[in-house]
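Let us practice reading a record.
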Amino acid sequence: MTAKRLDFAYETSFEQVLTNPTLDAAAALWEEGRYKAFQLFYRSMRIIDDIVDDFRCSPTKDSVSAANDIRIMLCEWLERIRSGAANSQFDTDFLEAIQVFRVPLWPWERLVNAMIFDLSHSEFATFREFLKYSEGASVAPASVFVHLCGVGGTGSIYSVPEFDVHRAARPLAVFCYLTHILRDFVKDQERDLNYFPRDLVEAQDLNSTELRRLAREKSTDTRLTNLIVRYASIADRYGSRARLELDRIGRHLDKPYRLSLDVIHALYNELLERVDRQHICNPSRPVTISSQEARQRIHQIIGELDS
């Protein structure tokens, strides 16, 4: 399942790579150059993440040699990018985009580190360990998005953001990530993917095996409900912190980019509200937001800002 060279499926349309229509709808508000850069950077991170997720769900997930092949592949690509040695059209376009938009490489370095962790771990011991992992899995991609919102200029000359991108992106990233984990609880458990740290699970007198069984049985066990309520309350807190950070950096952003971040925050608030905390395995309504709903919400937010 591994390849000698990381393949970013450049011949595949962006729509086929896209798994998060909310981000795409928000970025579509930008000027064309930044939007194209978003698509390029999103593709790079999505493909890397999918390669590792597919491995973790495959029959070879316990293969040390297969995991090592993926690790080598990711590290070799990262080293090529660091040295500016492109060996594909994707690499060439990627290197040009990070230069034009003054994007640092640390988000990809942290993403690769998180994915390497994934290759040899099936769970997180503590919520603190989960947060450390999130620096690569969610904060890194969010930081690229926030960076693109914050760069000054247009055309081919851009200046770096006038604020700390990592600080601004972190609470929004964790908020969105926790919301994803709640939304995808049953699907992830069915694929043997667990993003609930052991300390929080054991606090409800559960373990990862029981958690998987409860999800597959569509259980309403009180222990599971309590775990979901606890996780959702943490997501709520990060959502509030994210709102404060977005308000803080708002004066540094032109309207389309401030609006795109407001849209993401509003849509994820709505998504979290749709999570049925009492019946996570049998939700009363789909916990999703379609591309059409996202665009309708964008128009609503624009109207609220202009009124």
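A brief commentary: The chain has a mean pLDDT of 90.
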